[in-house]
Design a protein that fits this description.
The complex is a heterodimer of chains A (about 280) and B (about 750). With about 280 residues, chain A is of the alpha+beta class. The relative contact order of chain A is 0.12. The model of chain A has no long low-confidence stretch (mean pLDDT about 95). Chain A starts with a strand and ends with a helix. Chain B has a 7-stranded mixed β-sheet, sandwiched between helices. In chain B, strands 9-17-16-15-10-31 form a 6-stranded mixed β-sheet. In chain B, strands 18-26-27-30 form a 4-stranded mixed β-sheet, sandwiched between helices. In chain B, helix 14 packs across helix 15. Chain B is globular. The chains are: A alpha+beta (about 280), B alpha+beta (about 750).
């Protein structure tokens, strides 16, 4: 086991054995280990790497170290800048899980049900990847290549996540069959981007990869009066919801059905839009 | 019993009627409580189990050579290595300790391994090669009686065709319905675990979390080919039970491995393994037809009940008896035809779970009562009151209720209790909770009521006696009982009873073990406060009489003049005042076996005085439903219960809250998903139980105290009723909110969003 205390250490250890398990919060990894579906060989731990746990604002951008926990993201300092990500963070597991689980881990696991990914994809987040060979940047939408599949190369780590700080209200809603501590059956992030006059929509648990509802975004963005914030009308909201539902490509599994998932993201889209419009009208 | 409290009490330790704190409460909260999974022995080996990946298959061969060769492996044992009887079972010995030539459910144990490290166990289990001929599993309980038997005992475990009263009765108003209850898990937190320690003389000590020590011991001894006295079974720290520990799990496996290796062996199931390693609540399919006169008087109930017992019998025979006997609920029903069957399939075995057959039928009969009220244009509470059982009434079995039955009081107090809940504004408090999916404008509210009952103690002629011993020495009482404390609070109640009878402060509970005392019976059927509490009470009373007689003889006093009070023996006439500690320098001991009133088997028509006593409960549920997403928030749950007499108020509240939580779970989320005989959600990630955001506060409208004849202090068992009427009430409230039939629990989001079906 390598207890890395710097990014350099961590990359060097991974370069020496690219098959090492990377342990940050452990909330995904240890479930697999305890279930017996993953055996432990060499382990590189990241929770004592200070660079990974830091975050800062650079003008219109926020740079979150991959080791920032969901507990931290849900607190006011970050929540005031990234309200939808903070709301997604609050739906991750229990407080104990949120204190351990990291943003980078959630991205790297790349589960279709990951709570952060719908927000990150809606934000067009950029991931900073590093290895002993150097650094590169990948858009989060390109990073996830399939169900629990990523373009991360052997020996490579997620170092940080860069997202824009948008002007406008944001919503994140998640459907599960329990009122808390539940794996997402369907989720939706809806962000108002006044700067580029666009509604951004990211969907979770309704496709193998995190999804942008592009057609729905364009449809509603064109129908909003960006100068007055006026209501686009129930018809437009309904059409928007239908387009969101139509963009989903979900599956049937033991948690729900494809039909329900598509239906649910449509319902969430209508409600989230109504909420942000109400907020816009109030400001 | 004479009142011993002639003087003001000086002692402070809680007695009957007071909220004694559980001795295990603080250790469990702080993490210092030793659960069965914490057992340790310096010389111990680790055990593990190879389980069938198939719900139905023939075993052609098993090769263990590679497993035995794994470094650190001490034993690999199979069916032929079972030294005694090859099968075990609570009521029918029909379940192999290790599968022979056939496996009948996914997860059935096939081989066991002992090694010096859990990793070696894992490697050995992976190295065992089993050649299976996979068979098509029989998984449909509705047709399984017609297919080839999957077990020598046949595919019907038990059928009771109950016929009561005039069979030609037809009601002016009839309502019909078909209902389904899915498979629920007890979802205890402490997985199956234990340790077997072999002794030099060939006997063995087994430390295990269980509900019934002596039943386990007898089954284990038979399977090991030992005399019962050569197996000493001691209760290890129990992390919840709810029925799931009434059957053997790893017991015989541990003992076989310990005997074979002559080393202590420990085993702990993983969570996934635990879902395969214990029985579940029976899924039920039920058809009902209720007949009533136009004024709302029930005249006849017809029902067809099919319970899926899974691969082995477990306690299925008793579960179907309950489902059948209580099929119509706590109502006067002069005519009935109830056909109850529990069948064998290649699904996971089902057995005991809190409520035991009455949960399934309560959900159905209460839906029927609401349907009937609607057909009659009658208030559903009034309909229930109009038909409520009273003492002296006959049950469907023809048995007359001779004990207390405050059914009308339970209904009225619960229904009339004020409700305060307004629709919340914060999405967190609305359906969807932390996912913030709904606003107040997205929800509709529903309120409904349900009534339930079941038997207390074992039925149908079973003599489930309980033995207890009391020893009073130096003013300290020691109670010995093999009653399994599984979290229900027996230890607390036994101490309270002892203090009440003997006027002592300090009461020591000796370890629960088969080595020192006879059977206490099972911690199930809401029976231990009555049965083992009764045994403790009688043992203490016997000690008191013996002590006072001894003191009277020593002092030349009249024994009827002596009383025991607050650690002293005093004479009512005055003049005598002896410290109890001095008086018991020479100990006084008594040992009693407590029995309940005799019961009889059911006859061919399901008639007979089969039950001892009954307990009744009602729940009123208020729910908010997001009809757009099909999500539910149970906002308020109000209950009244017939408790006989309250021995420990805090524990009563705990039982009522905990039972209701399991009932809420079954109503809206808890389901073991079984597809083609395979469990799809064997984890607490996917088998969901209510969180604090799902479980509303339980408002206790009334605890009806009417002392039950024959029960110690008149106290009825209270553990099961809370989980019986709660599910029915929540489901009914969702029905009211949505206007949908909802003929199945748990109610899934898709049942609300797509009521016409998924297709």
């Amino acid at each position: 086991m390598t207890i890395a205390t710097s990014l350099e250490d961590a990359c060097a250890a991974l370069a020496a054995d690219p098959d090492s398990l990377v342990l940050a919060g452990g909330t995904d990894l240890m479930v697999e280990v305890n279930r017996g579906s993953r055996r432990i060989g060499n382990v590189v731990t990241l929770n004592r790497v200070p660079e990974l746990g830091a975050w800062r604002r650079d003008g219109g951008q926020l740079r979150l170290g991959a080791g920032v926990t969901f507990g931290e993201i849900s607190r006011p300092e970050i929540a005031s800048l990234l309200p939808a990500l903070a709301q997604a963070a609050r739906t991750v597991g229990s407080p104990q899980i949120r204190n351990a689980a990291t943003l980078g881990g959630n991205i790297a696991t790349a589960s279709p049900a990951a709570d952060s990914l719908p927000v990150l994809v809606a934000l067009d987040a950029v991931l900073e990847l590093c290895s002993s060979a150097g650094r590169r940047e990948v858009a989060v939408a390109d990073f996830v290549t399939g169900v629990k599949q990523t373009c991360l190369l052997p020996g490579e780590l997620i170092e940080a996540v860069r997202v824009p700080v948008l002007d406008g209200p944001q919503e994140f809603c998640k459907v599960g069959t329990r009122n808390a501590m539940v794996i997402s059956v369907a989720s939706l992030a809806l962000l108002v981007d006044r700067g580029s006059r666009r509604i951004r929509v990211g969907l979770g648990s309704v496709s193998p990869r995190p999804l942008r509802a592009t057609a729905a975004e364009e449809h509603i963005s064109q129908r909003l009066d960006w100068d007055t914030g006026g209501h686009p009308g129930e018809t437009a909201i309904g059409e928007f919801a239908d387009l969101v539902a139509g963009s989903a490509t979900p599956i049937n599994d033991h948690r729900s059905s494809a039909r329900y998932r598509s239906h649910a993201v449509g319902v969430l889209a209508g409600r989230a839009l109504a909420r942000v419009l109400e907020e816009v009208a109030a400001t | 019993m004479t009142d011993t409290r002639v003087a003001a009490r000086t002692g402070t330790a809680p007695r009957i009627g007071e909220s004694a704190r559980r001795p295990d409460g603080a250790p469990k909260t702080s993490g210092s409580f030793a659960f069965s999974s914490d057992l340790w022995h310096d010389r111990m080996l680790w055990g593990g189990t190879l389980r069938s990946p198939h719900p139905s298959a023939r075993i052609r061969s098993i090769q263990i050579g590679a497993a035995v060769a794994v470094t650190g492996v001490h034993a690999v044992l199979l069916h032929d290595d079972v030294p005694g009887q090859k099968e075990f079972g609570l009521e029918h010995r029909d379940q192999p300790v290790l599968a022979g030539d056939i496996v009948r459910y996914e997860g059935e144990p096939v081989a066991i391994v002992a090694a010096d490290h859990p990793e070696a166990v894992r490697m050995a289990l992976e190295a065992i090669v089993v050649d299976y001929e996979v068979l098509a599993p029989a998984v449909d309980p509705m047709t399984v009686e017609e297919v080839e038997p999957i077990h020598p005992d046949g595919n019907l475990i038990r059928r009771i065709h109950l016929r009561h009263g005039d069979q030609d009765v037809v009601g002016d108003v009839q309502v019909e319905g078909t209902y389904e209850v899915a498979m629920q898990d007890q979802a205890f937190l402490g997985p199956e675990s234990g340790m077997a320690v072999p002794a030099d003389d060939g006997s063995i000590d087994l430390y295990v979390a269980t509900q019934w020590l002596h039943s386990d011991r007898d089954q284990v001894a038979d399977c090991l080919g030992l005399e019962p006295g050569s197996v000493r079974l001691t209760l290890a720290g129990v992390g919840g039970a709810f029925g799931a520990r009434e059957d053997l799990s790893l017991h015989v496996h541990l003992c076989m491995l310990a005997q074979h290796t002559d080393r202590p062996v420990k085993m702990v199931y993983s969570r996934e393994e635990s879902f395969h390693g214990h029985v579940h609540r029976h899924p039920a399919q039920m058809w009902y037809r209720h007949h009533a006169t136009s004024d709302g008087t029930l005249v006849r109930v017809e029902a067809r009940l099919v319970l899926d017992g899974g691969a082995y019998a477990s306690s299925s025979s008793a579960v179907i008896a309950n489902a059948t006997c209580f099929a119509a609920g706590p109502y006067r029903v002069p005519s009935a035809d109830i056909d109850g069957a529990v069948v064998r399939t290649n699904n996971p075995p089902c057995g005991a779970m809190r409520g035991f057959g009455a949960v399934q039928t309560c959900y159905a009969h209460e839906a029927q009562m609401d349907k009937l009220a609607e057909a009659l244009g009658m208030n559903p509470i009034e309909l229930r009151l109009h038909n409520a059982l009273e003492p002296g009434d006959e049950l469907l079995t023809g048995q007359t209720i001779t004990g207390t039955a405050p059914v009308a009081e339970v209904i009225r107090s619960c229904a009339e209790h004020p409700s305060a809940a307004a629709i919340a504004l914060d999405p967190m408090e609305l359906p969807g909770g932390a996912g913030r999916t709904a606003g107040p404008e997205d929800v509709v509210r529903g309120e409904a009521f349900a009534l339930g009952f079941k038997n207390l103690l074992f039925s149908e002629g079973f003599d489930d006696s309980s033995e207890a011993a009391c020893r009073l020495e130096g003013g300290v009482a020691t109670i010995t009982s093999a009653c399994a404390e599984v979290g229900q609070g027996f230890v607390t109640v036994a101490q309270q009873i002892t203090r009440e009878v003997l006027g002592v402060e300090e009461v020591v509970m000796a370890p629960a073990t088969t080595a020192t005392v006879g059977s206490a019976g099972s911690t199930s059927a809401s029976r231990q406060t009555w049965m083992s509490g009764g045994a403790v009470k009688e043992a203490c009373e016997k000690v008191r009489v013996q002590l006072l007689e001894r003191v009277a003889a020593q002092q030349g006093a009249d024994v009827s003049d002596l009383v025991l009070v607050d650690g002293r023996i005093v004479s009512l006439a005055g003049g005598l005042d002896i410290d109890l500690a001095e008086a018991t320098a020479e100990p006084v001991e008594a040992d009693v076996v407590f029995r309940h009133a005799q019961t009889w088997p059911l006859d061919d028509d399901g008639q007979g005085n089969a039950h001892v006593s009954f307990a009744f409960s009602a729940h009123r549920a208020i729910v908010d439903v997001d009809t757009g997403l099909g999500l539910v928030k149970v906002v308020e749950l109000t209950t009244s219960q017939d408790v006989g007499r309250i021995l420990n108020p805090m524990q009563v509240v705990g039982q009522l809250e905990g039972g209701a939580a399991q009932g809420v779970g079954l109503a809206v989320m808890e389901e073991v998903l079984v597809v083609d005989g395979r469990i799809r959600n064997a984890s607490f990630t996917d088998y969901l139980v209510p969180t604090a955001l799902d479980m509303p506060p339980v408002e206790i409208a009334a605890l009806i105290e009417q002392a039950e004849p024959g029960a110690p202090f008149g106290a009825k068992g209270i553990g099961e009723p809370p989980s019986i009427s709660s599910t029915a009430a929540v489901a009914a409230a969702i029905r009211v909110a949505t206007g949908l039939d909802l003929p199945r629990v748990p109610v899934r989001p898709t049942d609300i969003v797509f009521p016409e079906g998924e297709a």
